[in-house]
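Reopening: Triosephosphate isomerase still failing for me.
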Amino acid sequence: MRRNLVVGNWKMHGDIHSNETLLNTLITGLSDYKSADYVVCVPNPYLHQTRSLLENTGIAWGGQNVNQFEEGAFTGAVSPHMLTDLGCTYVLLGHSERRVLFHETNLSAAARFDASIKANLTPILCVGETLAEHDAGLTEVIVASQMDAVMATLNDENFAKAMELNMVFAYEPVWAVGTGKTATPEQAQEVHQFIRQRIARRNAEAASKVRIIYGGSVKAQNAAKLFSMPDVDGGLVGGASLNAEEFIAICKAAN
Ligand SMILES: O=C(CO)COP(=O)(O)O
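Support: Ran it again with your exact input. Result attached.
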């Protein structure tokens, strides 16, 4: 049985004062809900603050992206080790905003996935199709290409390590991100099942263990239905993760 996972992606939001209020409210609000896992992915400058508030609370924290190299002359970049040094256990990779706005590719996401595994960071790989791709019936083709790039990059040793680290996949249809349009639970289930089958081509045991979470306008009001689908193992929450009450309600729906 897979444990549900709810990840808050703060994107480029927050400041020291509001973060403190938000995180303290989460700590109190989630203290009695221990049957799911929770993560907040905060902007890098606030990782230190997040660690000092969340350490030993059971809520984990992570980065929103990472560079594939260990160190070097890469101005503005952050290495996997820098994230683990700040206590991160997770990192988001291949988010559609990174792909669309910052021109990241399937191959670069795969390289960062590999580098994260080597640094003991659990990657959360985001996959999903745009509205045009969705309307053209290309959802499975796009998601398969995003998944297969990672599968092809991981050698057997790193794939085994990715299993140990409980790698996560997130289905985020781009047309549902920040738009208020959510995939129906049935639409999400269909793609999640497809993603699981894609992992099974590499390793059946991994496919049954891997958590596949849904992202795209997840709210308190639609979370329970989405999470009740057999292959939906929780959510990746953007806007609603900035509102403590709403995020807590979503986390409770995952219990
Ligand atoms: O991009 C997302 C999470 O990574 C989803 O964002 P919203 O929940 O704001 O639609």
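The chain has a mean pLDDT of 97. If you still see a failure, please send the error message rather than a screenshot.
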